[in-house]
Each structure stands twice: as structure tokens, then as C-alpha cells.
Amino acid sequence: MNLTLIAVAPVAVLLVYFYFRDRYRKEPILLLGLSFTGGMLSVPLVLLFHFFVPLHAMHFGNNLMDAIYQGFVMAAIPEETGKFLMLMLIIWRNRHFDEYYDGILYAVYVSLGFACIENILYVQDGGVNVGIGRAFLAVPGHALDGILMGFYLSLAKFSHSRRPHYLVLSLLVPIIAHGIWDFLIFLSAGWSESYPLLSILGVIAFFAFVMKLFRMGRKRIRVMLEKDTY
Predict the structure, then answer these.
(1) Which 3 state secondary structure label does DSSP give 178?
(2) Digit-coded pLDDT (tens) for 101-114
């Protein structure tokens, strides 16, 4: 089975899904492609960060602190910052960013560009089982982070009085969501041998958080589509 196809397929499905959620003026395919490419180009920025700050640069000897460090410092902060910089560079001043849903759409395309490269790397290394797992969790997770980023970016775009506030949230909220997501994964994995019961509770907390994010994502899409009707 082609591992690259397994890695790319869930990304393609989500790209199509979010494109057709745009019920009004469709965004230019070339600009969406540029956004997707920008997300792919954010990967080297993250790798550069990891070059200067190796994963084990800090080891606390405590599973809780290690999970926080890995989830936030090594994953959420550099990855969401890289996506945000690319999104701002490509979209913020573009004349096609003229509807509320546009912020979500372009942010999701940037996020899925990053997810595509990341997924190919993980699946090539881990095989089919990793690909299947990531298709239902990691890839949609990046899309959800994109929804949160784009939601607040649109509020910043169309609200001059509170623009700085919403711009900060457009970076901060996806960092927090992404960080909690990875934190719970690392915490559960770290407890799996020494504290199996706590590990199970961590897994339950993770899936509860995933469902919460899915509900938040649906609600924010609905809110922006409703705003575009007025």
C-alpha cells in the first residue's frame, strides 16, 4: 500500500470539505494553493527551531513537566507560530480576504499544508497503522487549530477597535488548544508503564478534549457563515 497516499488522503478530504463549506463567493484556487504551500513551508521554520532547541534540551525528570515542555514548547508554540506567520504574510492584506469564513478557510489550508508534510514524514517512518491513526486524530487536529486561528483572524480583520486583541487570540488560542492536545498524549504515554490507571484517565481526558474541540470548531464555522449572510 502506498504510504504517501495514506498520508495525503485525509488532508485532501479535509481540503475539499472546507472548500465546499464556503457557500458564497468561492476563494481563488491559486490563493488557496498558495496558502497550502505556505503551510508546507512553515515546516522548515519548525525544524530550524528544533535544531536550536533540541527535544531533550530540558529534561525535568518529571512526567508532568516533561509533557508540558514537549506539548507546548516543542510542538504547539513553534508549529502554530510558523503557521500564523505564513497566514499573515499571504492572507492578511489580500483583497480576497473579504468575508468572515475566509479567515477560517485560509487558516485551515495553511494548517493542512503543515499537516501534509508532517503526516508524510510520520507515516513513512511508522507505516500504515500510524497513517490510519493520524488520519482520524492528528490531521483533523491541525484543521481544528486552523479553525480557531482563522476565527479570531477574521474578527481582527473586521473589527478595527479590538484588532490587537483578536490578533493575539488568533495565535494564542490555537497554541493553547494544540498544546493541551499534545500534552495529554505525552502525559498518557509517560504514565503507561508506571501508572496505568492514570494513563487510562489521561486517554479519556484526551478524547473528551477532542470532542470539545470538534464542537467548538463546528460552532465557529457556523457563526462565521451566518455573519456572511448579512
Answers:
(1) helix
(2) 999 999 999 999 99
